[in-house]
Amino acid sequence: MNKIILAVVIAACLGTGFIAGRSQIAAPAPQEKPAERKVLYWYDPMVPDQRFDKPGKSPFMDMQLVPRYADEGQNDAGVAVSARQQQNLGMVTARVEKRPLGSAFSAFATVATDERGIQTIPAPADGVVEKLYVRAPQQWVKKGEPLAQLWIPQWTSAQQEYLAVRQLGDRELTLSARDRLALQFMPEGVIRSVERSGKPQTRLTLRAERAGYVVKLDVREGAQVARTQSLLELASLDPVWLVVDYPQSEARSLAPGSDIIATSASWPAEQFHGRVSELLPQLETATRTLRARIVLANPQQKLKPGMFLTVTQPQNEQQQPVIAMPEEALIETGSASRVLLATGEGHFQAVNVVTGRTSQGWTEVLSGLREGDRVVTSGQFLIDSEASLKSALPSPAAEKPAQAWQSTGVVKAITADSVTLAHQPVPALNWGAMTMDFVLKTPQPAIKPGDRVTFSFTLDDENGAVIERLTPQPEEKP
C-alpha cells in the first residue's frame, strides 16, 4: 500500500514539472522594442539645400521627400579618436575665447632728417663771399654762430640816400627812405647800424637762427653770389623722422596719429616715443613693403640720421576684445588655414578659418570659429598635410560607405559633369519613372544621347544624385 502511494506522489511531481517546463519553453522571451530614429527634417535629394518639416511629395520633382535622421551624417567630416588614442597622441584642447589682443607690430626703421625743418640761408643781395665760417657739410653749428660774411657794394648808394634824407629832418621822407632799404632785403640790424654810425654798412654777417648741422654747402670763400641764391642749408636733430618699412599684411596696424615706441641698440635701456605723421602712398617695389613716416622727439640729439631702430606699438589697455585662439592650434596648409575642432566626445573635425593678427601666443579669428569652441593645440601635427582627417588620424571604426541605388534608363543629354536620364522607378526611394539630372563624377565619352544604360547612384546633401557607375545596356538579339 505504501508503495502505491509513493508511486502516485512521484508521478504527480513529474507531471507538474513537465507542465511547468512546457510552459517555460512555450513562453517566448519578451523582445525589446527598437528605439525610433529621430527625424531632423525632410528634403529633396535633387534640391538638398531646401528643407521641410514634414513628409510629403517634393514640390520640385515627382518624388517623395527623404528623411534626414539625427544619427545620420554625425561627424561625417571628422574622425573619432578614443580617449586612449588621444592620450597616446598627446592631444590637448583649448577654448576659443574673447580677449584683448595686444599689438604684435614690430618693424625696423631708419632715422632721417626732418625735412620740414630744413632752413635755407640765401644771399639777400648781389655780392661776394668775403669769409666763410662753415667749411664742410655735416658741420655742427650753435644758435647765433656766424656762418658767412658777405660784401654787398650795391647797398652803398641806397644807404647814402637814406642818410641824406634823414638829415633834412622830414619825418615822412625819412620813413619812406627807410622802407626802401627794407625792400632791398636789408636786415633790420644793418639799417640800425647805418643810423648809429652815420656811414654806409656794406658788409653783412649771416648767423644761425637755431642749432643744427649743415646739410648742404653751395659756396666757397671769394665766390660771387646773386640775390636770393642759396648759400647753405641747416637742419635740426629735434625732432627727427623715422621711416618705417613694414609688410603689406600689417597695413591696418598703423594709422596717422598712432603712438609708437622706438628702441636702439646704441641706447638699450631707453625708449623713444613718437607718433605716426603720415602713411606714404607709394609701395616700395624692390622690397614690396609699405612705408610710414614717424615724428620722433630727440631733445638730447642721441639719434642721428642713418641709425636703425626697432619700432613697436604700446599695449592699449582700452583695446576691444576679439575672438582668439591659441597660436599653436593653427595649421597652415599652404592653400588655407585650418584648425582641428573638437565637436563632441572623441570626435574632431577640420575647420577652415580666417585669421587676423597674432600677439602674445594668441591669434585673432575673423571667421570659422565661435566663442566657446574647443580646438586641438597639441597632437594636430598628424594633419599638417593636405591628407584628409580620416587618413591622418586612426579611427576605431571603419567609415560606413554611402548607400547606392540602381536603375535603368535612357540618356537624354550628357555633358562632362552631368547627365539627364529618363529612368525607371526606384521603389526603395518611392520614386516613380521620371526624367531628371544626375551629377557625373567622371566624364563618360562612350555614352551618348539615346543610349539605354544601367546606372547606380548615391544621394549627397551637397550635390544631390551622384552617378557612381554608368554602363550601356547590351542590345537585345531578335
UniProtKB/TrEMBL annotation:
Q: Which GO terms describe its molecular function?
A: transition metal ion binding; transmembrane transporter activity
Domain CusB-like barrel-sandwich hybrid: start-end pairs = 119-234
Q: Which UniProt keywords apply?
A: Ion transport, Signal, Transport
Residues annotated as domain CusB-like three alpha-helical bundle: 155-202
Q: Which GO terms describe its cellular component?
A: membrane; outer membrane-bounded periplasmic space
- What NCBIfam families does this protein map onto? RND_mfp
Name assigned to this protein: Cation efflux system protein CusB
The organism encoding this protein is: Phytobacter massiliensis
What is this protein's gene name?
A: cusB
